[in-house]
Amino acid sequence: MSNIVALQDSVTADEFDREPTAAELDAIEHEMPVILARVELLDAQIVTLDRPATELDQRRIRRARRKVLAARRELANRSATLVQTGGAA
To answer: Is 47 exposed, middle or buried (CB count within 10 Å of its CB: 0-12, 13-18, 19+)?
Structure first.
């Protein structure tokens, strides 16, 4: 009878078993306004899943969509400015 053993050392960290690096955390922080705006849009859309959308719901969704677009525009402009000036993203 042969034993079945792992081919790699058990101390080798898997790619997905590590903490985020400082650069990854900075990228997340840089994109946080877009993430929060998308969460707000998702919340507004979830409210309308189980019932027809009222005028107030439609306004809330439109406002959230505009906020997402504004946050994405701001992120793109900030990234473009950093690239042009040679700063770190």
So the answer is: middle
Quick count: other Cβ atoms within 10 Å of Cβ 60? 19
For residues 25-41, one letter each, b for 16 or more C-beta atoms within 10 angstroms of the residue's C-beta and e for the rest, the string is eeeeeeeebbeebbebb
pTM: 0.70
pLDDT by residue for the chain (89 residues), tens only, comes to: 666 766 655 556 566 778 889 999 999 999 999 999 999 999 999 999 999 999 999 999 999 999 999 999 999 998 888 777 776 54
Structure tokens at 21: 């690096």
